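Hi, here's the filled form for the chain we discussed.

Project: internal
Contact: R.S.
Residues: 397
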Amino acid sequence: MTNLLDGVRVIDLSRVLAGPYCTMMLGDLGADVIKVEMPGRGDDTRHWGPPFAEGSESAYFLCTNRNKRSLTLNLKSERGLTILRDLVGKGDVLVENFKVGTLERWGLTYEALQRLRPGLIYCTITGYGYTGPYRHRAGYDFIIQAEGGIMSITGPTEGEPHKVGVAIADITAGLFAANAILAALFARERTGRGQRIDISLLDCQVAWLANVASNYLVSGKVPARYGNAHPNIVPYQVFRARDRHFAFAVGNDSQWETFCRAVGKPEWHEDARFATNAARVENRDTLISLLDELFARRDLDDWLGELEALGIPAAPINTIDQVFADPQVRSRGMQVAMPHPTAGTLSMTASPLAIPTAPTQLRHPPPLLGQHTDEILREILGCDDGTIHALRQAAVV
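And the returned structure, exactly as it came back:
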């Protein structure tokens, strides 16, 4: 079966999360992703555990490196840089997340890269981008979450701010980078020209503040923390039924009226304090207190059955094991298994890119360090056994 990115070769110099997440998406779509790693060590996340799968591959590394081939290459050596240049000459996309200016110091400016491979798409993913006063700072997801504002609006209304439970600044930067690369590949089909893409974790974090950023830019008021509540919609938060917590979301006034009448509280809908969403936002505390008392009278399963019948959004707050046992998640095939050279059968999340006409495929498990070095050197650069042996003896690969 033909993949959408068949024939596209990605030279992946990135490590940790943002870059590898971006290139995994491209690999899922069929690109040949060559993951270039330092001999003897590899991607930092190979060592980030426990947990480790059988064979000592870290769960962290496994989550974001499928559909890639691993080539070890010592980029501190001149011969290693020569091999990198040769690879670039046979690639379509180069992704890297070194500190700003690293490739330029190696003589690999965008202009030089275009001479090596006309039409190359060159994407850098850094903490702060290639311009601005912070451009030379290292980028860490936690720090970006703090600087980019998301922590100031995450967590309980009282107490310390909270980070998001996954490295969301890294993940979204990877998503934005993949989008930009795909757009550049599409444009190259029409123009033949490459592109220089400068993705900043901080830029991405600020961009997806979305309605919260807009609230500030429109009103001039600094957004507060609402815990699990919503700044613009009420009721839209966590409540506790008699036995456990759940999420409850009334998205419009029609749903609110339906809910009030169904639970025997038509007066809530008729009360001017609660009749419209704007009024409910203004009188949030009073209404939430009433709902707390109502929901505490019955077990969650009772509430979920009734709310489902009414078409009112509500859901249990699942733990991760419950997520993978959920019938919808199972039906959509979001847990997959594939053979792995040391872990045996490896269980992992599937790609969410559901394209029935050209489905994503699990072509390669997350690679062992340097697993494909010889294969890549022979296949792409035409190296013979003697040359590869010499490169190993010289600690180039």
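Let me know if anything looks off before we file it.
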